[in-house]
Amino acid sequence: MIIKYPTSYQISRMKAPCEFVAAKIIPSLRAKLVRILLDKYGMKQVEVSRILGITQASVSQYASNARGNYHEIFEMHPWIEREMEEIARGIINGKKPSFCRICKRILRERKVASW
């Protein structure tokens, strides 16, 4: 019996759903949240960075679409917009932000452009 192992290219293409969430979805959710907090609530980049636990430079990159630009996720899952608004309102009211519920639902629905 000959065992055929996958090539390094094939291995690099095999991404677990969690890796996809970490690499594409979470940055896009952060970018959306950053833009809501900056545009709708008039927060400063430094305030947003402190709340989200990221650098001010990261906030700037999210705000300018240099990071988190997997916009297809919002087209495939229109309900995410409402969830992000709810998270932003929670932040304004002193709650800690969490994307867990959104990511779990996306994974459950298995509806993403490229897994």
Question: Can you walk me through this structure?
Answer:
The protein has 115 residues and is mostly helical. It has one domain. The protein has helices spanning 8-13, 17-40, 45-52, 56-63, 72-76, 79-92, 100-109. It is globular. The protein starts with 7 loop residues before the first helix and ends in a 6-residue tail after the last helix.
**DSSP helix fraction:** 55-70%
Please give the radius of gyration in angstroms. 17 Å
Number of helices: 7
Structural class: mainly alpha
- Number of E strands: 0
So what's the overall shape? globular
Order of helices and strands: HHHHHHH
Oligomer state equals single chain
List the helices and strands and how they pair.
Layout lengths: L7 H6 L3 H24 L4 H8 L3 H8 L8 H5 L2 H14 L7 H10 L6
Helix pairs in contact: 2-4, 2-6, 3-4
What structural keywords apply?
single chain, about 120 residues, mainly alpha, about 0% strand, globular
Q: Brief description of this entry?
A:
By secondary structure, this protein is mainly α.
